[in-house]
Inverse folding.
């Protein structure tokens, strides 16, 4: 294929991905109320949120629709990206990519599940215990939705880290010893990411850091076994 043909194919792949995001976002907007009830579930069935401006309700609905569009359309986006780069890969690299893609789907679901069922329901009640007497928790609609989605995205992305480690080691690009020696720096990076994508408190950061660093250690073991079997 010529350079111009590559650009034309790239444009086609991008357009298809954008269409998928748009369709899924429209569906997210149509089912906005049901989606919001799922997002509010970690607070409890009796919890209520408040809006501080009329425009906040509309803009937050758009935010929910946008997030849903990205999440649901992600398989299509990944598929379009793979179809664009796959012809340039060698057979061994294709097997690694396909294996990584399968693992990515499993880990994404695992990350979302951990965040939604194990982290969010625990974080809010713990933080509310620090409120002094006479103060009642009354969360803002827009900020609560953003915090929940940031947490979900952080866990979904963070759970992909083992794929990066295992793929780099399996392809022989980076030795396992490199990741072992730099584990302390990885821990610092995870702490920084946890601070950026969780509520501003130490408890939330710790709850996110523990599973992510545990996955990193587990990925080192898997990468070592795969590399040893390959040699």
């Amino acid at each position: 294929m010529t350079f111009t043909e590559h650009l034309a194919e790239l444009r086609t792949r991008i357009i298809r991905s954008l269409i998928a995001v748009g369709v899924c976002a429209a569906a997210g907007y149509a089912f906005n109320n049901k989606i919001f009830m799922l997002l509010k579930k970690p607070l409890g069935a009796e919890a209520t949120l408040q809006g501080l401006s009329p425009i906040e309700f509309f803009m937050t609905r758009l935010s929910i629709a946008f997030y849903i569009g990205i999440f649901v359309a992600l398989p299509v986006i990944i598929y379009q990206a793979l179809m664009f780069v796959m012809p340039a890969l060698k057979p061994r690299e294709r097997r690694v990519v396909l294996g990584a893609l399968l693992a990515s789907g499993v880990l994404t679901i695992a990350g979302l599940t951990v965040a939604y069922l194990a982290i969010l329901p625990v974080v809010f009640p713990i933080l509310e215990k620090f409120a002094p007497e006479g103060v009642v928790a009354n969360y803002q609609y827009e900020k609560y939705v953003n915090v929940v989605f940031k947490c979900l995205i952080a866990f979904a992305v963070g759970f992909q880290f083992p794929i990066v480690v295992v793929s780099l080691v399996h392809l022989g690009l980076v030795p396992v010893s490199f990741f072992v020696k730099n584990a302390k720096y990885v821990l610092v990076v995870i702490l920084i990411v946890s601070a950026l994508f969780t509520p501003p408190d130490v408890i939330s950061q710790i709850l996110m850091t523990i599973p992510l660093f545990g996955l990193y250690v587990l990925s080192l073991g898997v990468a070592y076994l795969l590399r040893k079997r390959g040699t």
The chain has a mean pLDDT of 86.
